[in-house]
Amino acid sequence: xxxxxxxxxxxxxxxxxxxxxxxxxxxxxxxxxxxxxxxxxxxxxxxxxxxxxxxxxxxxxxxxxxxxxxxxxxxxxxxxxxxxxxxxxxxxxxxxxxxxxxxxxxxxxxxxxxxxxxxxxxxx
Length: 124
What we know:
The chain is mainly α. It has three domains: 1-36; 38-84, no CATH class; 88-124, no CATH class. It has helices at 4-16, 21-30, 41-45, 48-52, 94-100, 105-113; strands at 56-60, 66-70.
């Protein structure tokens, strides 16, 4: 730590001696040192890598338009990941899920009437 500032200066001077990031990356790759570019989410979504890996997908908004969401966070060789359905509206599946869990219809209805449980809430 006593020599940190001096070392930092030397490394910065060395890095600035490269004409572009690709040349620096190639040099560091020979030494097995990884580097990366820090990007915003929007910048990342526009990269060739994002397109190749389907990192962002366009889904219907269920109101006639579309919007973009992150894609699957994993990818396995030899496997195909199915596209998932569009995101659900808030409360849209509450009744179905509670029925599958064995909650009585009357109890679900009381929760809806009391404003505790949303049902069939759709974007309007």
